[in-house]
Design a protein that fits this description.
This protein has helices at 16-26, 44-47, 63-66, 69-79, 99-105, 108-111, 128-134, 136-144, 158-171, 187-191, 226-238, 292-300; strands spanning 3-10, 31-36, 55-58, 87-91, 114-124, 147-151, 176-179, 213-220, 244-251, 259-265, 268-274, 281-288. The protein has 310 residues and is an alpha/beta fold.
Length: 310
């Protein structure tokens, strides 16, 4: 019996990992998860709940650019497990053009064990129009999707939602569109979808990416001064929504007993206590026109000096 594969795409910060975690929590099935990230540092794989060895994290670059070898190795690893999964979820990088990934999953060698079931595109309701205008890969994900999840609907007013849905239907009139908050879709219905049509890939143009997009990681071993961090966050993240598209990682703040999971999408952010051993701070930035040296110097200035209280 072939293992169904559901590919989940969506631009940076749309809520893909939130959706994957919802599936993990909601389904009684055994799932295999493959997470691809744009940068060299993986964060999302560590955020997938209670799957342990069933998560394969690929951080060698965007799957559509680095070739199919990493994806094939991850699929083989999952297929060779003594307890095979009931389904595999592939979470694409937020900037992935899906066509090379879909083509790999349709390869005859892959189809011996797996069956490409559906492509799901997650969309941030608040930023969908700007994202489609600025980023060609986002439109490609939507054009090929069988299901479009219009996420974060609680952050957009009804008029904006109706307009966004109209734009989405113009791009892909055949897709099902569902409006949700925090990825709360009907998990069983999603897992049962078998709607991917290989003919959509015929004549697909070359891979497209947003010009100037880059990623880098900032790390420190020492704790951060909370007030200095707040100034850094305001000036280098929230004040630059057009340049800083996505930030995610972990912070250790002086005087706080737990590390903090920090995530930002343009000018919105969340900061949640994370139940793990205290360590250093590590943040992944994805954006356009960012000077890594500027960010590294400003971030280093947030570190509490040894022997000095903030």
């Amino acid at each position: 019996m072939h293992i169904p594969v559901i590919v989940i795409g969506g631009f940076l910060g749309a809520g893909k990992t939130t959706l994957v975690n919802h599936l993990v929590r909601s389904l009684p099935h055994r799932l295999g998860i493959i997470v691809n990230e744009f940068g060299q540092t993986g964060v999302d794989g560590g955020l997938i709940e209670r799957l342990e060895d069933d998560v394969q994290e690929l951080t060698a670059g965007c799957l559509c650019c680095t070739g199919r070898d990493d994806l094939l190795r991850a699929l083989v690893t999952i297929a060779m497990r003594e307890q095979k999964p009931d389904a595999v979820i592939v979470e694409l990088s937020g900037v992935a053009d899906p066509t090379p990934v879909l083509a790999t999953l349709l390869d005859s060698a892959v189809r011996a064990a797996f069956a490409l079931a559906s492509l799901v595109a997650v969309v941030d309701a608040r930023h969908v129009l700007q994202t489609l205008q600025d980023h060609p890969e986002a439109a490609r994900q939507l054009a090929y999707a069988g299901l479009v999840v219009l996420n974060k609907t609680d952050l957009a007013d009804p008029a904006r939602l109706d307009h966004a849905e109209g734009v989405l239907r113009g791009i892909n009139p055949l897709a099902d569109i569902v409006r949700v908050e925090q990825g709360q879709i009907d998990a069983e219905k999603l897992l049962s979808r078998r709607d991917f049509d290989p003919r959509v890939l015929e004549g697909a143009p070359p891979v497209q990416h947003t010009p100037g997009l880059r990623s880098f990681t900032l790390r420190t071993d020492g704790p951060l001064d909370p007030y200095a961090w707040q100034r850094f966050m305001t000036s280098h993240i929230l004040a630059r929504p057009a340049e800083v598209l996505r930030v995610k990682g972990f912070l250790t703040l002086h005087g706080y007993p737990q590390r903090i999971l920090f995530q930002a999408v343009r000018d919105l952010f969340t900061a949640d206590a994370w139940d793990d051993a205290l360590g250093g701070s590590e943040l992944v930035f994805i954006g356009r026109g960012l000077e890594q040296e500027e960010y590294a110097a400003a971030f280093a200035a947030c570190v509490v000096e040894t022997g000095r209280e903030p």
